[in-house]
Design brief:
Layout lengths: L1 H21 L9 E12 L2 E6 L4 E5 L5 E6 L5 E4 L10 E9 L2 E10 H30 L3 E10 L9 H15 L4 E9 L5 H21 L12 E5 L13 E9 H7 L2
Parallel strand pairs: 3-7, 4-7, 9-10
Antiparallel strand pairs: 1-2, 1-6, 2-3, 4-5, 6-7, 8-11, 9-11
Helix pairs in contact: 2-5
């Protein structure tokens, strides 16, 4: 009985010694072992792998490290593949040699089915990252206006009547606006430098309102898309005296980039 017990102890001691040699965590430099686990990162020539014991291992690749894809129930079909096939999410079996706190890979193999699964996961990750970046950019763009077009409608001195040419220009402007997703319109009225400041302010506001009414009632633009008219008084480029180019209403078509990007998704 004592002899049998002693023999069992020897067997257990031998098995423990074998485990110490085969387990990467106890390997000394130059010791050969195997690591099975999931690649979590591949940076340059270095793999980060979480093994079956949920321990993170660092595996160094070299030009001589062989990589094979296996297929079939017994993994009898083996194809040599490039090291770039070692992508995050791939489950591998690696023959390694201990080297300090890491391991040098001699040979690595993986199942072709596991590679397809890892590819699908990576595709989903890439798509998610791209969507996240797009959403971030869209949020950054909210409140950032992008001008699409501007039109100047000219007026006779002291008048708020829109000319035939002005109406034609506004109709074309409205057509472009309707074709623009998420469009907004601003309307600013101006005068030349003749007359007093109060009259010029009133006249510039009246001209802006005349254009707004035309855009909404004749050209069919939505009231929610056309901002209230601004009377800007004397135009900054008016100069002195009568200036036909300063007696105008400037209509601007623009979009909020954040809103426009959202509507295109």
């Amino acid at each position: 009985m004592t002899l049998k017990l002693h023999f069992n102890k020897l067997l257990l001691a031998g098995a423990a010694a074998t485990m110490l040699v085969a387990t990467p965590g106890f390997a000394a430099d130059g010791d050969a072992s195997k690591i099975s686990g999931l690649i979590t990162a591949h940076t340059g020539n270095v793999l980060t792998v979480v093994d079956a014991n949920n321990v993170t291992q660092t595996i160094n690749l070299s030009p001589t490290t062989g990589v094979q894809s296996t297929e079939g129930a017994l993994n009898v079909r083996k194809d040599t593949v490039d090291q770039t096939a070692l992508i995050p999410g791939l489950r591998i079996n690696a023959d390694v040699v201990a080297a300090g706190n890491a391991f040098n890979a001699v040979k690595i193999d993986f199942k072709s089915g596991d590679f397809k699964t890892a590819q699908a996961v990576q595709a989903g990750v890439a798509q998610t990252e791209a969507q996240t970046l797009a959403n971030k950019n869209r949020l950054n763009d909210f409140g950032t206006n992008e001008t699409i077009a501007t039109t100047d409608v000219l007026f006779a001195s002291g008048s708020t009547v829109i000319s035939a040419q002005g109406k034609s220009d506004l109709m074309a402007f409205a057509q472009q606006a309707k074709a623009t997703k998420g469009y907004q319109v601003t309307v600013n009225g101006y005068t030349d430098s003749t007359g007093n400041a109060a009259e010029n302010q009133r006249l510039s506001k009246a001209r802006a309102n005349a254009v707004i009414n035309f855009l909404q009632e004749k050209a069919g633009l939505s009231t929610s898309r056309v901002q209230s008219g601004n009377g800007m008084g004397v135009a900054t480029d008016a100069g002195s005296g009568s200036n036909a180019g300063a007696r105008k209403v400037t209509v601007r078509l623009f979009v909020d980039k954040g809103v426009a990007d959202s509507s295109n998704q």
